[in-house]
Specification:
228 residues, alpha/beta, Rossmann fold, 4-stranded parallel sheet, 6 helices, 26% strand
Length: 228
């Protein structure tokens, strides 16, 4: 466990939030919290802090050059000690309504009661996919639409780059009878396996490190939420 963390709060125009959150994740943040007009991100406090701050300033400068907004981004850095981090970071993670079918919630909170929604429990961690990011929400909404159009609601599916496993879990709750989830990151495979067990769907999902080029099966649905 790192001795301390850097919390970065950026307030900018809403139009740049998705691009900014993608960049922060690619730059090493294990998690971001999307706000109405900005992003909160967390980084391990290290000797690389100067380089990190420089890279983020350059990225924001590039966004400003192509944006029509005249609003200047506001950055605020804060160091969070390990003893504070253990509890303080959890306040940023809330149950989130996604699409028409789901509540996505961390394991320490009860989701709001809503009969028409199914609960997906995800432990926020190092693997991408907690339901807060726009691309994750978009994929889940896409899967809802596809699942409702398939005959009988039963189908097979492949998730490429499963990360936290959230999309594979969503697929089980949407009626997929069998799912294959692959990833080349051993951390993601461990996290996904834990999340599958926590949601009671491990027996319906084949999790592996198999390379996509070696998959010889056919599937009703293939989904991938990847950074490039």
């Amino acid at each position: 466990m790192p001795a301390s963390w850097l919390q970065l709060s950026i307030r900018t125009g809403a139009a740049g939030v998705d691009a900014l959150s993608n960049f922060l994740i690619e730059r090493g943040s294990p998690g971001v919290v999307l706000k109405k007009n900005g992003v909160d991100a967390f980084f391990v406090h290290s000797n690389d802090d100067v380089s990190l701050r420089k890279d983020i300033r350059l990225f924001l400068k590039g966004i400003a050059q192509v944006s029509s907004s005249r609003r200047k981004p506001h950055l605020q850095w804060k160091i969070i000690k390990e003893e504070d981090w253990q509890n303080s970071w959890k306040r940023f993670i809330k149950p989130r309504r996604v699409g028409e079918s789901f509540w996505v919630t961390p394991p320490w909170l009860e989701p709001p009661k809503f009969r028409r929604r199914q609960v997906i429990t995800i432990e926020p961690g190092l693997a991408f996919g907690t339901g807060t990011h726009a691309t994750t929400r978009g994929c889940m909404e896409f899967l809802e639409t596809v699942a409702h159009r398939l005959p009988g609601g039963e189908f097979t599916a492949l998730e490429v780059g499963t990360g936290s496993g959230i999309l594979a879990i969503a697929l089980t709750k949407l009626g997929a009878r069998r799912i294959w989830a692959i990833d080349n990151d051993p951390v993601a495979l461990r996290v996904a396996s834990e999340n599958f067990r926590a949601n009671g769907v491990a027996e319906r999902i084949q999790l592996s490190r198999t390379n996509l080029s070696r998959m010889k099966k056919t599937f009703s649905v293939v989904v991938a939420n990847l950074t490039v």
